[in-house]
Amino acid sequence: MNASLSLKQNDGNYFDDFKIGQVLQHGVPRTITESDATLYLALTGNRFALNCALTVAEQCGFSSMPLDNFLVFHIAFGKTVNDISLNAVANLGYAEVRFSRPCYAGDTLTVTSEVIGLKLNSSGKNGVVYVHSKALNQNSETVVSWKRWVMVNAKTDGLKNTQQPQIPQLLSSVSDEIPAIPSAIDCSSWQNYLSDSQDRLENFAVGDKIVHRDGITINHSEHSMATRLYQNNARVHFDGAFMQDSANGQRLVYGGHIISICRALSYNGLGNGLWVSSINGGSHTNPSFAGDTIYSQSEILEVKTIEGREDLGLLRIRQIGTKNIAPETIAQVSEVKNNRTTYHPSVVLDLDFNLVMLR
Amino acid sequence: MNASLSLKQNDGNYFDDFKIGQVLQHGVPRTITESDATLYLALTGNRFALNCALTVAEQCGFSSMPLDNFLVFHIAFGKTVNDISLNAVANLGYAEVRFSRPCYAGDTLTVTSEVIGLKLNSSGKNGVVYVHSKALNQNSETVVSWKRWVMVNAKTDGLKNTQQPQIPQLLSSVSDEIPAIPSAIDCSSWQNYLSDSQDRLENFAVGDKIVHRDGITINHSEHSMATRLYQNNARVHFDGAFMQDSANGQRLVYGGHIISICRALSYNGLGNGLWVSSINGGSHTNPSFAGDTIYSQSEILEVKTIEGREDLGLLRIRQIGTKNIAPETIAQVSEVKNNRTTYHPSVVLDLDFNLVMLR
Amino acid sequence: MNASLSLKQNDGNYFDDFKIGQVLQHGVPRTITESDATLYLALTGNRFALNCALTVAEQCGFSSMPLDNFLVFHIAFGKTVNDISLNAVANLGYAEVRFSRPCYAGDTLTVTSEVIGLKLNSSGKNGVVYVHSKALNQNSETVVSWKRWVMVNAKTDGLKNTQQPQIPQLLSSVSDEIPAIPSAIDCSSWQNYLSDSQDRLENFAVGDKIVHRDGITINHSEHSMATRLYQNNARVHFDGAFMQDSANGQRLVYGGHIISICRALSYNGLGNGLWVSSINGGSHTNPSFAGDTIYSQSEILEVKTIEGREDLGLLRIRQIGTKNIAPETIAQVSEVKNNRTTYHPSVVLDLDFNLVMLR
To answer: Which residues, 6 or more positions from B325, have their beta carbon under 8 angstroms from its beta carbon?
Structure first.
């Protein structure tokens, strides 16, 4: 080690660095381009017409093709990694993800996080940090906001509890909230061929399970490129030499890439599910690696009309992502043992979200 | 298998589902972006100046950089997979591929196919479906059209011949058709350095074989990204777990990716071949896999002037693509046995097309 | 080998083909798109705000987001390969790389090279060619220029010295030149959060070494796509079958890709290093291959203010790139033996450049 070595790098925040009410303004504002949308097609296999056909988007009253909301989320989320989770032991969960307005190519997102909860673990080695993050566009309008909790290492080993733990109230679901659909949006002239599907809101019932037939094998370059596109710099996704000594012996695929692949796979069956309006919660239940083939299945949890809209309704969906075997071949995706949900080792995603669906 | 499982997915059409005269309107209209053109450079190695230099394109009278016609074809073709070939046993061939007008970034393509022929095989297990497909832009102008025949499984096992087989007349070549070159296009001021080549129409003679020196090794992410960019969802290209049990034990590279790589490789030797105006026919003679290195060779079949044009002529070309060894090292690319053309196992492409060439 | 085989391909220039004062106009002018910039984020991990946030770029007085200068260099450099280094034995070095003005999406670059030096080696088998290359935009303004020397094979075996060797004077550093910063550029309102860094010019001292914490494992598709994006057609990067018989037994990663990755890694520590204004020189000291993990370290060689500017200064930096182990763990990066610098086998890059730094 060189004696004159100067460590000017940003080393990320530790548990000790966070304070309740603190607002972190995250680095690298990001202008989203048409190319992000096109690359997203190439990286995930997305085929939803609103995201790739200008004629369709304009006919529905959008000013241009809206970006897939998961793409928007990944870019916004990526900004927070450097300040929030560079020293994370585990990403524990997220809730109340609300997509407030469409995001278009040309929009620039800036992201802030407010610390809304802190709970030091009894070991004093780490603790849970709760943040409320918001991505604003260039007009200071909120595009997406979410709450998230992460277990973060303490800088001071054996940190003492000087403050009372503060744990925020988090909604287990936001499916009761009516998504903010601008009045200019009108999808009543949609034709079935646009989405390769004849199934609209009325064709779905609570308890239906939809098998999405396709599978996608993940290659190293794709998850790496996607995660870099989101400017998410978590080491576990990129540094193969470092990860050789980790428990899994290899780089991890960013969980958001799995979400996007499952959304893309769901086109075959949920083609009329125009956009995701909010996420109630989700778990990345097992890690994925390059070489894994991802499959997906959707279960309908709620079917809702939206007051004043004849064209659009809401489906609440539980989407299961699996690797290397299809979800429908797994007898029990998850089971509750000792108050803890344990998952089949092939299940990589359990996501609960609300989807704006054609009627 | 879950008892309440509901299969809402689009399962594709079977031989029984097709009727002569039926018109299928394919899903997911697609706006082509500048990013498709740029990604295409990165994925294939294309270097033709008209496709990547705005100054050159405008100087020749184009309103912007036209997209490489193979890129346009792949995107248009991709739309048809879901309805035509999801249950295909084999893609048997295509003919009469006509590029009617330039396609530019910003154009939105919508694709339809008319069923023009049906022939049930004697086994009753499958049959050949002939379609005539057309991609229209947002102004309802035809950009590219083609005929194609595919062997498709029957839904009903042992389907009976209730109809007379109908086999359409297909032209073996469209090289006699003069491509529709707008009068605004004028390439007479082209300079050799723009294309790294001094060889123009006059320098080529029937029987010439041009060895394209370069080779490109295909990586998994590239063929996967290209095929997803074209929104072609044929399972054989993406689902590695499924393909493990197939004859080849692995994912197949989309044949269109091979065509694009061969076109890109041909820059070195055919740099003044400005654009492909039509395809007479072609065969993907052996499968390609990730890790294969592709080489290419062009044979001049016809050399033609175009009436009224001093700047441009036509070359009819037979392009051979090989894997892992160069075409010129193969003693016999193909031979006819029992009325059937059999190919050397290293030959992956035999394409017959017409190229607009500088004079 | 087919008897009628006609070799119309461009075979590149040999040592015998170059003459002092000769100007080569390189092929394939290239319009740089917004998508080049976005793909560059995905391929390299670049996070510098000026290159990806329109709001930030405009606030600093740029008319749009300037492209990363290394991206510009790679595209410009790629154009010269076909004429200069297709028959190269070795790329020996470059000097006096000057970025004269920002390059924006929409600009079209055309590149020329003038032969400024020639020295036949005593064997007569090859010799060193020195060129001065310039990339002009569509308004004939110089965007980037550089000098480079390459050892090129002779066509004639045992070529005789008929001319005196001419070796041009090359500056060992251009760090004394004040970069041409347009007066419209004003970065005085920059806020630290934009770049995840609080370290500005004043915080750096000569001799400081900055460890950039992150590492990036290179995958085949990424270096292949990047190099094709730059339309650099050097065989060693793409033709895996050909490279199997080479000393390394595999494809080489384009050295420019390593430079770009090191620049991207340096964000963590040099986040306020807004753009590279010139390169004094550099060596690709060992080859890199797919699978290698790249790390980087920067040493401050000079710290300078710029007359008349309160917002920006200059850092001269020596950037070391290593593979598979971090630079700070190497006791001696390089040592001089018999007047020759030899490098530790893990060191892949030794780059000396000037960085415009926030004050």
So the answer is: B295, B346, C241
Distance CA B265, CA B288 (A): 16
CB proximity C166 to B under 8 Å: no
Per-residue pLDDT tens for A229-265?
999 999 999 999 999 999 999 999 999 999 999 999 9
Nearest Cα to Cα of residue C18 among C96, C111, C160, C116: C116
- Whether B220 sits inside 8 A of C221 (CB atoms) is yes
DSSP string, A168-233: ----S--TTSPP---TT---TT--GGGGT----GGG--TT-EEEEEEEEE--HHHHHHHHHHTT--
Distance CA(A208)–CA(A211), nearest Å, equals: 10
| The pLDDT value given to residue B5 | 54
CB–CB of C307/C284 below 8 Å? no
Instruction: Report helix, strand or coil for A42.
Output: helix
In sequence order, what are the residues at sequence separation of 6 or more whose Cβ sits closer than 8 angstroms to the Cβ of residue C312?
Answer: C181, C185, C187, C201, C274, C306, C356, C357, C358, C359
Confidence of residue C309 (pLDDT cuts 50, 70, 90): very high
Q: How far apart are CA C351 and CA C341, in angstroms?
A: 14
**Average pLDDT of the segment spanning A144-159:** 91
Q: What tens digit of pLDDT does each residue of B263-293 get?
A: 999 999 999 999 999 999 999 999 999 999 9
Looking up tokens 């654009």, which residue turns up?
Answer: B275
Among B1, B8, B80, which would you mutate to test the A interface (most chain A Cβ atoms within 10 Å of its Cβ)?
B8
Residues 120-139 of B with CB under 8 A from C: none
Cβ contacts of residue C256 below 8 Å, gap of 6+? C70, C73, C74, C77, C226, C227, C230, C232
- The two beta strands, B108-120 and B142-153, are unpaired
All structural domains of chain A: 16-32+67-170 (3.10.129.10), 182-359 (3.10.129.10)
C-beta of residue B138 within 8 angstroms of C-beta of residue B108: yes
Nearest alpha carbon to residue A118 among A144, A82, A154: A154
Give, to the nearest 10 degrees, the angle between helix C34-44 and helix A34-44.
50
Q: Does C299 touch chain A (CB under 8 A)?
A: no
Please say whether the beta carbons of B116 and B145 come within 8 A. Answer: no
What is the value of ipTM here, to two decimals?
Answer: 0.95
DSSP code, position B255: H
Q: Does C43 touch chain A (CB under 8 A)?
A: yes
The closest alpha carbon to A322, from A339, A297, A359, belongs to A297
Pairwise pLDDT comparison (A353 vs B92), residue with the higher score: A353
Residue with tokens 């992460």: A150
Query: Token match 């007898």: residue?
Result: A331
* Cβ–Cβ pairs < 8 A, chains A and C: 152
A28 interaction partners in chain C (CB closer than 8 Å): 47-49, 52-53, 194-196
pLDDT at A303 over 80: yes
Whether C108 and chain B come into contact, CB under 8 Å, resolves to yes
Supply the pTM of this predicted model.
0.96
Q: Which residues, listed in sequence order, are joined to residue A108 by a DSSP beta bridge?
A: A31
**What pLDDT does residue B191 have?**
94
